[in-house]
């Protein structure tokens, strides 16, 4: 199962509690040290471009992106990422509490790879994180890997 | 009727004709009216003009000629009589409608040599100088009976002719009268035409709509008062302009298109709603209807424009449009609001549910070590949710729940707030400086208090990252209409790109948990509800100053009244 552990997530989440819940759920699914978390959109961009204190940050395999973020919201981050030659290949999964159609439409127009709504029911939340790990860690193939 | 004969004599120039007739026959001629008034006399003998006529009784030979000499003809009724002075005269009446209106008299002749002795006696009796008188008597022609016959014939024919002419003349007079009547009728017609023109003029002038005649090249030819009123120009000023000059530029193209179609005969009239620019520069909306008056050949003589001022309708339509746009804006805001609220309210629920589930599982496994970690998260999430609900309720009350406006002592109000905020202020050891001399404000006291509470809370939370920092509150009169208040911190400042955004609903510059993102939206809404404005000036690392500009009492009242009128 070493291949599973290899998937590296970047969690863009301003809510400490939610970030912690995702981390716990991943932990429960045996993903431990492969999660980096940033609290807002600007930090996310800086991290992906390895700016400042993120110089040593590894390139993530999947970005988990909240939409409601201070300073630079998830939609703006998505637009910047998909416009960036270097970064647009990284799959972006929106992970939000918003079920609004305007958000879904706008995210898809910005080439989001997947749109997930955080379930209030924690069991479902837990299952969703497990499936995320399974999908992106096991089933999904990315180029450059033999 | 009594004018007919003199008129006739005057008109047909009888004198030369009678004169030559008398010359030929060697007699004198006279035409007199029925009263004996002489209308025409030719070739009178000296004996009559110099002597007999001086005698009153001989002034008119016919009245004196009672001795009938000869009745010439029944048909002509011409008779020859001897006058008192012993001379002969042929006379015939002139009739009109069977009434005698005058006589033709040819006379002053004798039928045999004069009886000189009798004439001498007559001269003595009448007091004439005998010798000249007798001399004159010798000049009196003596006519042969044949010649007398000619004279009577002439007189008969001539009088008949005159009667006939008089009848014609009279008929002519009647037709003249008829003509006069028809002339009178014509003048009546002219009169009624003038009246109708007057009616038209007053209709044109006093019409409640603007009416104008416009030349083919657009000049104002004739303008009524209402038209001048609508356009704000005097008649003289308009006459120097064209309709193109006073048409709102955006509407000119469509108008000229119509005019072209009228000119080419493709339309016989058109109506459009257009704008004019009044003399004072203001815009007036009008409903324009234009028809055309053509010359005989079909070319345009002038256009008739009827201009109706529909500004009030258009402006109320405009107001409705504006209100609709505002409503659409509000709806969009509401949609954003509902969706954000659902998101922001759901977020703590995810937290609560998540950690509660974890605690449940931990408890099931007899694991207690994470309890102290998870329980405060649940508490924080419920607090956040409660704050958010409270803020949203406050926001929804702005403009919905109003208290009567009053004069507010802002310095005093801030001191009152000190109580609510003392926990935060004391823990951070913040120096809160309130300018006691700041002016008063006017408004809804409860709402204005919310404004300052939010601004001071923000200043404490975001403007005082360390202890022992300073917050200043003050105010000053801006102009005659408003007062400006401010809350100043000396914190990190707000980057320019975020200075607008922070007043939006659910906009946060800090990560979740620090605030609800509603506070400044409440401030903005309250201030705007007071017809004021809120803004921030900030410099990195030097702090931020939030300004609130509130119109004074008088201004607010007038703006509210205006709003209510709309």
Task: Name some characteristics of this structure.
heterodimer; A: 146 residues; alpha/beta; Rossmann fold; five-stranded parallel β-sheet; globular; disordered N terminus; B: 566 residues; alpha+beta; Beta-Lactamase; Helix Hairpins; six-stranded antiparallel β-sheet; five-stranded antiparallel β-sheet; 18 strands
Q: Any overview of this molecule?
A:
The complex is a heterodimer of chains A (146) and B (566). With 146 residues, chain A is α/β, with parallel strands linked by helices. Chain A has helices spanning 2-5, 16-28, 41-48, 74-82, 101-109, 122-139, and strands at residues 9-12, 35-38, 62-65, 92-96, 114-117. A five-stranded parallel beta sheet of chain A has the order 2-1-3-4-5. Mean pLDDT of chain A is 87; it is low at 1-5. Chain B is α+β, with helices and mostly antiparallel strands and 566 residues long. Chain B has four domains: 4-176, no CATH class; 210-309, 2-Layer Sandwich (Beta-Lactamase), CATH 3.30.450.20; 312-397, Orthogonal Bundle (Helix Hairpins); 403-565, Heat Shock Protein 90, CATH 3.30.565.10. In chain B, 51% of the residues lie in helices and 22% in strands. Chain B has helices at 4-11, 14-25, 46-51, 61-64, 116-126, 130-139, 145-206, 225-231, 235-239, 243-246, 249-263, 311-364, 371-397, 410-427, 445-463, 519-529, 553-565, and strands spanning 28-33, 38-42, 67-73, 78-82, 88-96, 99-109, 210-214, 220-223, 269-277, 283-294, 300-309, 406-408, 431-434, 441-443, 470-479, 482-488, 533-539, 543-551. In chain B, the strands form four sheets. Chain B has a six-stranded antiparallel beta sheet with strand order 2-1-6-5-4-3. In chain B, strands 8-7-11-10-9 form a five-stranded antiparallel beta sheet. The two termini of chain B are 84 Å apart. The A-B interface holds A 14-18, 20-21, 24, 39-40, 67-68, 70-71, 96-100, 102-103, 118-123, 125-126 and B 339-340, 342-344, 346-347, 349-351, 353-358, 377, 380-381, 498, 506, 508-513.
């Amino acid at each position: 199962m070493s291949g599973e552990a290899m998937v590296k997530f970047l969690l863009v989440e301003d809510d400490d509690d939610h970030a912690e819940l995702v981390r716990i759920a991943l932990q429960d699914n045996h993903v431990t040290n492969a999660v980096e978390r940033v609290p807002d959109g600007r930090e996310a961009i800086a991290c992906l471009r390895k700016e400042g204190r993120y110089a040593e940050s590894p390139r993530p395999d999947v970005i988990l992106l909240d939409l409601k973020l201070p300073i630079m919201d998830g939609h703006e981050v998505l637009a910047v990422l998909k416009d960036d030659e270097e970064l647009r290949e990284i799959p972006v999964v929106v992970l939000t509490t918003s079920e609004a159609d305007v958000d879904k439409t706008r995210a898809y127009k910005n080439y989001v790879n997947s749109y997930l709504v955080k379930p209030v029911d924690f069991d479902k939340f837990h299952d969703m994180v497990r499936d995320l790990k399974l999908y992106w860690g096991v089933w999904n193939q990315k180029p450059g890997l033999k | 009727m009594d004018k007919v004969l003199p008129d006739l004599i005057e008109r047909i120039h009888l004198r030369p004709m009678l004169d030559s007739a008398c010359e030929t026959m060697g007699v004198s001629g006279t035409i007199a009216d029925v009263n004996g008034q002489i209308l025409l006399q030719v070739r009178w003998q000296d004996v009559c003009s110099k002597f007999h006529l001086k005698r009153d009784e001989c002034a008119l030979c016919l009245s004196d000629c009672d001795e009938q000499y000869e009745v010439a003809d029944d048909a002509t009724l011409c008779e020859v009589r001897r006058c008192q002075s012993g001379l002969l005269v042929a006379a015939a009446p002139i009739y009109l409608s069977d009434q005698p209106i005058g006589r033709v008299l040819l006379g002053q002749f004798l039928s045999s040599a004069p009886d000189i002795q009798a004439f001498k006696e007559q001269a003595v009796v009448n007091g004439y100088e005998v010798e000249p008188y007798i001399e004159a008597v010798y000049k009196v022609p003596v006519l042969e009976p044949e010649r007398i016959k000619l004279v009577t014939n002439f007189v008969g024919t001539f009088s008949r002719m005159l009667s006939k002419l008089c009848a014609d003349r009279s008929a002519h007079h009647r037709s003249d009268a008829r003509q006069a009547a028809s002339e009178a009728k014509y003048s009546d017609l002219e009169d009624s035409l003038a009246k109708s023109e007057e009616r038209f003029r007053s209709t044109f002038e006093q019409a409640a709509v603007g009416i104008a005649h416009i030349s083919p090249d657009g000049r104002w030819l004739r303008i009524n008062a209402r038209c001048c009123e609508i356009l704000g120009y005097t008649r003289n000023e308009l006459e120097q302009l064209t309709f193109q000059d006073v048409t709102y530029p955006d509407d000119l193209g469509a108008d000229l298109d119509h005019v072209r179609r009228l000119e080419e005969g493709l339309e016989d009239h058109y109506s459009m709603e257009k704008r004019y620019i009044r003399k004072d520069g203001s815009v007036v909306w009008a409903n324009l209807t234009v028809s055309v008056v053509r010359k005989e050949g079909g070319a345009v003589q002038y256009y008739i424009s009827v201009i109706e001022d529909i500004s009030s309708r258009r402006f109320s339509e405009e107001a409705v449009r504006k209100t609709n746009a505002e409503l659409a804006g509000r709806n969009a805001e509401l949609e954003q609001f509902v969706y954000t609220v659902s998101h922001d309210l759901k977020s703590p629920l995810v937290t609560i549910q998540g950690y509660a589930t974890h605690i449940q599982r931990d408890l099931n496994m007899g694991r207690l070590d994470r309890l102290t970690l998870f329980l405060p998260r649940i508490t924080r999430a419920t607090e956040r949710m409660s704050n958010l609900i409270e803020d949203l309720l406050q926001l929804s009350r702005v403009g919905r729940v109003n208290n009567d406006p009053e004069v507010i002592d802002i310095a005093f109000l801030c001191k009152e707030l000190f109580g609510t905020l003392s926990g935060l202020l004391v823990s951070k050891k913040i120096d809160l400086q309130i300018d006691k001399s700041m002016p008063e404000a006017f408004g809804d006291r409860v709402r204005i208090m919310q404004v300052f509470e939010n601004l001071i809370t923000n200043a404490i939370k975001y403007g005082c990252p360390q202890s022992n920092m300073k917050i200043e509150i003050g105010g000053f009169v801006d102009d005659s209409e408003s007062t400006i208040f401010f809350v100043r911190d000396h914190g990190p400042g707000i980057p320019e790109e975020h200075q607008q955004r922070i007043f939006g609903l659910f906009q946060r510059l800090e990560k979740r948990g620090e605030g609800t993102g509603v506070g400044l939206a409440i401030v903005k809404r309250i201030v705007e509800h007071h017809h004021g404005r809120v803004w921030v000036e900030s410099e990195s690392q030097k702090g931020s100053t939030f300004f609130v500009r509130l119109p004074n009492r008088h201004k607010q009242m007038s703006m509210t009244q205006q709003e209510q009128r709309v």
